[in-house]
Amino acid sequence: MIxxxxxxxxxxxxxxxxxxxxxxxxxxxLAIGLKKGMLLKEHKTxxxxxxxxxxxxVHYKEDENIKKLNKYDDxxxxxxxxxxxxxxxDALCLLTQG
Length: 98
Hints:
Blueprint: H1 2-10, E1 17-23, E2 28-34, E3 39-43, E4 49-62, E5 65-70, E6 74-77, E7 83-97
Antiparallel strand pairs: 1-2, 2-7, 3-7, 4-5, 4-6, 4-7
C-alpha cells in the first residue's frame, strides 16, 4: 500500500515523494518516487545507505562523478558524502539506511 501511496501522490507532485516502508531501531527502508526531470537536491546521509532502482532511470551524482542507474541497478551511498539524484525517466527506488 505504501508504494501505491507514493505513486498516487507523485501524479500531482512537483518534487520527489518519499515514504517509509519499514523502520527498526537501526534501519529504515523508504520508497522514493520521481518523475522525469525531478531532482533530489544535494544532501548527505549520516547512515550507510543503498539505493535500488525498481524501475526507470536516475543519475546518481557524487562530487564530479555521475553514475547512471537503470532498473534493478543499485549503489552504496557513503556517509557524510554530498550527493544528489536526477531522474532521467519516471522512476521508483528503494532506499535502505542503517
